[in-house]
Design goal:
The chain has 2 domains: about 160 residues, YacF-like, CATH 1.10.3900; about 80 residues, YacF-like domains (YacF-like, Sandwich). It is about 50% helix and about 20% strand. The chain is built from 9 helices and 8 strands. The radius of gyration is 22 Å and the shape is globular.
Length: about 260
Amino acid sequence: MITYEYPFNERIRTLLRLEDLFHKLSSFMQRDGSQEHHVVLLTLFEILDVSGRADLKMDLIQELERQRQSLLAFRNNPDISEDALSGALYEIENASAALLGMAGKIGQHLRDNDWLMSIKSRASIPGGVCEFDLPSYHYWRHQPPDVRREALLGWMQPLLPLRDALTIVLRLLRASGRSEHHVASGGAFQLMLGGSNVQSTSQMVRISLKLHDPYIPEISANKYALNIRFTRPDSDHRPRHCDTDVEFDMLFCNL
């Protein structure tokens, strides 16, 4: 299956963007090449920009506390594994404590590093990090892979509480709700969202299709309706309108 996620608010949109950036960071960090480590540094700068919202840390702390209180209500429930419940509570409490331990603004240690900020400002210019622009960075990129990786890990380490917290929140979000099967007649689907039903209070919708089905959902939504228009790529991968019936699964997620 291939799944497309569409967030209904800016907070979830920010968490999804950060999740994608942290996945990219982890993938390239494991490699040894200078170019790959350059991508890691650029990704750190992207995380710095995306996480710049002043209330992001507090939002995550409050959400983790809300989930902790919800889980505590299952204590002594014979249908719930005490070991699993204790493990989930321990994970949430550790993530909350780590977030609370983050001093100052997210990524401030990067902003305080003049050398990194000089690279960041040049990186915004196409081709701006050539050796004649930043000779000290050119020297750093020629250091052994372990030396570069140690530096990158040091710059990434203070951001890990953010990564761990958003991973828990998004995992709980995706695990909520129940998937339903639908058919988009002629490639189009609409669902009204008014009232007090689950869909109207959801924070994200997940659309899943069979991996080899040549359909791409284009999703739009407001407080009144969810609209999905399916397209299919042509030989140049450009999306073209699809006028055939499309089967898909849909899951509304809400914390």
